[in-house]
Amino acid sequence: MRHEDPERLTEHVIASPPSPADRDAYRSLVAAAAKTVALLSTTSGGWDHVVPVTDFLSVSYDPPTMLVSVYGLSRIAEAIDESGGWALSILTSEQRAVAERFHDPGGPLVGLLDNTPHHRRAAGEPVVIAGCLAWFRLRTVAAHDAATHRLYVGGVVAMGRAGAIAQRPLLREHGVYRD
Amino acid sequence: MRHEDPERLTEHVIASPPSPADRDAYRSLVAAAAKTVALLSTTSGGWDHVVPVTDFLSVSYDPPTMLVSVYGLSRIAEAIDESGGWALSILTSEQRAVAERFHDPGGPLVGLLDNTPHHRRAAGEPVVIAGCLAWFRLRTVAAHDAATHRLYVGGVVAMGRAGAIAQRPLLREHGVYRD
Fold first, then answer.
1. How many residue pairs bridge chain A and chain B with CB atoms within 8 Å of each other?
2. Cβ contact (<8 Å) for B130 and A169?
3. Cβ-defined contact of B3 to A130 (cutoff 8 Å)
4. Chain-chain contact of A162 with B63 (C-beta, under 8 angstroms)
5. Chain-chain contact of A133 with B32 (C-beta, under 8 angstroms)
């Protein structure tokens, strides 16, 4: 019954407001969850915006509905607010380098997709990353602010595959990729 | 440039309202994302409620904030609405059998935790599963309905480790566990 030893339980109580140590401890603990990596894309004012995300989930099958959480003051949040639509491309374990290309949230928008094969079904629509495991195009149906972040709930309007070679998703765990 | 072949892109457009085929296709596609498994727990009216969840995420570090999505008409949603608080225990790759014990959302509440080592810091608080990778106790700060589900946003009030032996999380992918 080694698991029942109460001395093995550690407890860190969060102060109000949280201290820097509280935030660091939380960040470290929650990073233990492995998360699938996707690229979130939208277009606004003629520009493409693409950022890697791990904080997304499927909300409902009926109708197909997903959620993504992004930093509320980010450029991509502003772009999604403006465009009302976004896409998620779930990356494969072979696409770590693709994700890394979009790590700088303030990087230049000019030429953003020049070196990344992608698909766009119609002008103004968000891109789908070529070779991804699965893609979803969504229209925002609700947005909720939550602490530093903004939660977008989207209805899936179209979806599909994009020629993935690898069959496993790219994972991120403890702040690093696992491919 | 095999990834650029446009013929490799498949597209399934969702009808409004979605057909059963739309829902099935969505379920199949979105299952490609690997997700970490946690047990969601709460207490209400003197009863413990525990269900496995994969649809949770970290929303914010400041203050530490998480989100969980559950079926809106479920018993656990009703219990969280009543109690205002919940806990997440992130399971390890060795705890697949623990998750499976709680698969029946309508199973008996009597004796629910009899065979599952757990911790409870104070009467009325949700349990933490012994041996888990990390645990978080939360107070609901917002709840949003989204299609068939209800999204609970919670502020983390306490968190810690619980004597995990394995260091990897339990994953679910394509509807099955990967341990």
1. 246
2. no
3. yes
4. no
5. yes
Tell me the C-alpha distance between A160 and B102, whole Å: 32
Chain B environment of A163 (Cβ under 8 Å) = 2-3, 5, 8-9
Per-residue model confidence (pLDDT) at position A1: 36
Judging contacts by C-beta atoms under 8 Å, the chain A residues touching residue B25 are 159
pTM, two decimal places: 0.95
Q: Look at A8 and B156 and tell me if their CB atoms are within 8 Å.
A: no
Reduced 3-state DSSP string for chain A: CHHHCHHHECCEECCCCCCHHHHHHHHHHHCCCCEECEEEEEEECCEEEEEEECCEEEEEECCEEEEEEEECCCHHHHHHHHHCEEEEEECECCCHHHHHCCCCCCCCCCCCCCCCCEECCCCCCCCEECCCCEEEEEEEEEEEEECCEEEEEEEEEEEECECCCCCCECEEECCEEEC
- Dig out the tokens for A75 from the structure: 């450029």
Q: How far is B122 from chain A (nearest CA, A)?
A: 13
**How high is the ipTM of this complex?**
0.94
Q: Which residue has the tokens 């009899």?
A: B114
Q: For residue B38, give the nearest of B69, B64, B77 by alpha carbon.
A: B69
Q: What confidence score (pLDDT) does residue A5 get? A: 55
% of chain A exceeding 70 in pLDDT = 96
Cis bond upstream, residue A17 (ω within 30): yes
B57-88 pLDDT per residue, tens: 999 999 999 999 999 999 999 999 999 999 99
